[in-house]
Amino acid sequence: MPAPRVIVAPQSFKGSADAVAVAAAIARGVRRAWPDARVDELPLADGGEGTVRALVRATNGTTHLARVHDPLGREIEAEWGLFGDGKTAVVEMAAASGLPLLLPEERDPRVTSTRGTGELVLAAAQSGAHRIVIGIGGSATNDGGAGLARALGYRFFDRAGREIPEGGASLARLHRIDGQTDPRLVRPAIDVACDVRNPLLGPEGASAVYGPQKGATPEIVRELDAALARYADVLEAFVGRRIRDVPGAGAAGGLGAGLLAFLDARLVSGAELVLGAVRFADRVRGADLVITGEGRIDRQSAYGKLTGAVTAAARAAGVPVVAVVGGVGAGHESAGLGDIAVASEGVSLEEAMARPLPLVERAAERLVRAHATAGPRD
Do residues 148 and 206 touch, judged by C-beta distance below 8 A? Predict the structure, then answer.
């Protein structure tokens, strides 16, 4: 009998371990239970933190560093990647404009900026890439992508002709936008991994839904929503089309709207984009088992999320799919998985978060032993 082939395709356990480390831990557990297995590690990401490393690893690409500005304008080094084909670059806004870059007391979406994300996009464009993939999860910002646009060559003025400061609040004073996109960004196609459908404004918009996690009080949410409304008026007049109601325009504090307006980007499902980039449908064909995973699985995992997309693709190929997870929530049965091993079973949440990888490895070993004993299940 040929050695069984196992595809290990988890995403990160957020706040605990990145997808590369989780995939490696699951693979170790598989080999302990099934020593002759051929294991293909395929760490995945959903557009947030870890997207660059996951996609670079999956495509045998390379990582690079760029000097950019963090959400408060401090210089930092941020990572971006180039796929193995040399034609596709990948950027994650979390590396330059992400919430983890700030201390809790520094979080203030009235002043944080996406300028660093624009600088990362420019660094990727300088590589000569024909396509740039941008993951926009985990933002610390609510500036509608105005900071990104500044990095690309645009300027923002008030009624008196003065440039307004960076950040979301100052957009309330916006009167005029000048400039054009840096010529290095004319050629590449821009694809944005965006799994949220929020419009820019209103009760389901950027400020109301995501502002509180970035430090916005109810009063600040109202202030930011009004500022983005002014921004939308000026921006739409500048580009000559309506953007505020496009599904996903409110993603990442309105960065979705900025990418649509200034880069003519295409907002696509993050799960669809990632699975296409790593050629998941081709790689899963003929496998004996797929093991996926995430920090917490619940009813949302089946709807447009990466775990649900992996499960659907594996089942379409006739390959059984199981999961190692940190924990489970209500409705996890709807994910359609054959079996689920919970890594945190029998230990405290603190221990599970502090030492996830040995727990993940043991859970994977239990899962594979049970699968090998029971045989494939639908």
Answer: no
What per-residue confidence (pLDDT) applies to 306? 85
2 is written with which tokens?
A: 């040929």
The one-letter amino acid at 241: R
Q: Is 162 exposed, middle or buried (0-12, 13-18, 19+ CB in 10 A)?
A: exposed
H-only helix segments in the chain = 19-33, 51-58, 94-97, 115-125, 146-152, 206-210, 218-239, 251-263, 270-277, 280-284, 306-316, 349-354, 356-374
Distance, CA of 283 to CA of 261 (rounded, Å): 36
Residue 367 has which token pair?
């899962």
Percent of the chain clearing pLDDT 70 (strictly above):
95
> What is the distance between the alpha carbons of residues 19 and 353, in angstroms, rounded to a whole number?
14
To the question of domain 5-44+279-374 being in CATH 3.40.50.720, the answer is: no
Find where tokens 């502090």 sit: 354
**Is residue 360 within 8 Å of residue 24, measured between CB atoms?**
no
Architecture of domain 51-270: Alpha-Beta Complex (3.90)
Residues 330 and 283: their CA atoms lie apart, in Å, by 31
Residue 301, pLDDT score: 57
Name the token pair of 52. Answer: 């660059």
Q: Where are the domains of the chain?
A: 5-44+279-374, 51-270
